[in-house]
Design brief:
mainly alpha, 0% strand
Length: 254
């Protein structure tokens, strides 16, 4: 302990789950990439499913938002999408958990997106050229009024780049955390009514416990299916917004 703080890193459950997600991506998609590189034709639903996911990200997210720069950033968007999706899906497995239900994990992903949103256009246009591209050109009669409004818009645009990254982190975290919280609360009903039954055993409390248990199980199953959809949707939304914001910075003229 140094100055009251523990300096050594701690291995958390979410860290291990993130490593598991990365390992699963390697196991599932690296062999696929090798087969595609060798020119092999798709065989079976499992191969087609994985290839369809990658094709969807390339054709429906990267190309519409990045245009001719899409091919440069497709591997990055693929990695982001697959990692977020895998982290989301791990939360549907009992006793596991979704790393993306932690604000620290989604915050790290947002910091990565923030670096890309600024680093890519700086590499393309240069430091001065990038920040100059955000200065708006207004058709206002007087010089003072024109530049005053332009300066205000410019500052708002700079602050907006930070807000965009913040929104990416909070949106993903809130949706995953809220879903797990609802599932936990529904499951807790079984324990709460069961405790009441054991404290005061009777036919009425037994029937109540059985009814609540059956209703909670069906509710958890239904919400788990909804969580599966949310896991796919939130991975899509995060990557889509990243591609959209990146396209705006790479092509400010549009």
């Amino acid at each position: 302990m140094l100055f009251g703080f523990e300096w050594y890193p701690k291995i958390t459950k979410f860290m291990l789950l993130e490593l598991l997600a990365a390992l699963l991506i390697i196991v599932l998609f690296v062999p696929l990439a090798r087969r595609v590189r060798d020119g092999a034709l798709p065989r079976g639903w499992w191969w087609n499913l994985r290839e369809s996911i990658l094709t969807f990200v390339r054709d429906q997210i990267a190309k519409p938002n990045l245009g001719h720069d899409a091919d440069r950033f497709v591997p990055l968007l693929w990695t982001l999408f697959l990692f977020i999706l895998m982290c989301n899906l791990l939360g549907l497995i009992p006793m596991m958990g979704s790393p993306t239900a932690s604000i620290w994990v989604t915050g790290a992903l947002a910091v990565l997106a923030f670096g890309i949103l600024h680093g890519a256009p700086i590499a393309k246009m240069g430091f001065v050229g990038y920040f100059a591209s955000m200065w708006p050109h207004l058709d206002v009669p007087t010089w003072f009024l024109r530049n005053s409004i332009a300066l205000l818009i410019y500052v708002i645009e700079l602050v907006g780049t930070v807000i965009k990254a913040f929104v990416l982190a909070v949106r993903l975290f809130a949706n995953l955390f809220a879903g797990h919280l609802v599932l936990a609360n529904i499951t807790f009903f079984i324990y709460a009514v069961g405790s009441l039954f054991f404290q005061n055993p009777s036919t009425l409390t037994g029937l109540l416990w059985g009814t609540v248990t059956i209703a909670s199980v069906f509710g958890v199953v239904a919400l788990s299916l909804l969580e599966l959809f949310v896991a796919l949707l939130q991975a899509y939304v995060f990557v889509y917004l990243t591609a959209l914001f990146l396209g705006m910075t790479l092509h400010p003229q549009h």
